[in-house]
Amino acid sequence: MGDVLGKLQELQSIYDTVLQMCSHRPQELQKCLVSKMHSKEDFDKACHWLKQANIVTFPEINLMNENTELHKQLAKYQLSLEPSPEYENLLLTLQRTRQAMLPSLNEVNDSYLSEKLNALPLQFNGITTLAKDKFYEVQEAILAQKEYASLIELTTQCLSELKDHFLKMNQVPTNLVIEEAVCLWNVCRTLLEEVAGLGGAMDGLTQKEESFHSTGQPWQPDRMLQLVTPYH
Known about the structure:
Blueprint: H1 2-57, H2 67-81, H3 84-101, H4 107-170, H5 178-215, H6 221-231
Subcellular location: Endomembrane system
Main location: membrane
Keywords: Membrane, Phosphoprotein, Repeat
């Protein structure tokens, strides 16, 4: 009788253990399923961002575009780069989630997932590096065009002022006293020095014009012609 009772108690203990395991197993499966669903969402989100960022960064920069178009291009690169820290963290989260999911994955699924997750950081680094390079290239082009336009404007203004001075000089009467003649000579000498200084500015503009022309950037030929012709 005692042996039978012992066997029954042993069976009861085994039953309770199995029952407990069976009740925990659905919870574990549910937790694993939720984790996989979230990982799938994060994975799709990361892939979508990489695809969109690649679309923005892949085309070659057209330096022949006007300043307005370059600013639009710069804004696109900036919009792609701004969320990059968020997606970098998302990729790290996916790597950690994969480690946690390993016990529930078979060899084929683990191999497939590992291949995909290992490729994402490489794509991420390549795209963000390219976007940064192009961002700075466009930024430099915008600054160069702005500087070029400012130099043209400043040189045009200086040339116009010199032209006005020389026109006034032509109106000076010839019957000047010595003091007036000396004063006029000093004015002429100052004007000649300014012309010489303007020559240096013109040389600098010509170099920038050649640089812009060789790279296809807008070099404002009409403005330069209007500037060079009266100077010479």
